[in-house]
Amino acid sequence: MISHQKKTAKIPALLLTSRPARCLYHLCRLITAGIFLWSGLTKAMNPADFATIIGAYGLVPDMLNGITAVTLIAGEIVAAIGLLFEKKGALIAILLMTILFIAVLGYGIVLGLDIVNAGANPQLFAAGWL
């Protein structure tokens, strides 16, 4: 009788067999999680500023800027914490948010908007650092 059990390959276990590769994986994971956590927490301190930045792109109706800002902020924080603890789906969420960021950034460049990544830290932008 043939068994039809699914064989699930653990990608990190297969690819990261050497100690340096595992260390590099964990370093990249922690740095990426740290960046997304820092970005989400700084935006969470003043979500209205982030909603204003979202509104400048004109991609969502004005009445949805606030809920979009809060949703993206929560997504960044949750995905970062998930990545810190290697939870399933966290890396995909980070990837999708990165793709979204690149797409929106490209859209802004095509429109000729003055692009500054103030979303990462609106306080630095207001202080003239960015």
The secondary-structure class comes to mainly alpha
Major beta-sheet overview:
none
Compute the number of strand runs: 0
Integer average pLDDT: 83
Please indicate the count of domains.
1
Indicate the overall shape.
Answer: elongated
Q: Give me the strand/helix succession.
A: HHHHHH
Defining traits:
130 residues; mainly alpha; 6 helices; 68% helix; elongated
Short description:
The protein has one domain (19-126).
Explain what this protein looks like in three dimensions:
There is one protein chain. This protein has 130 residues and is mainly α. It has one domain (19-126). The protein is built from 6 helices and no strands. The chain is elongated and about 50 Å long. The N and C termini lie far apart (65 Å). The mean pLDDT is 83.
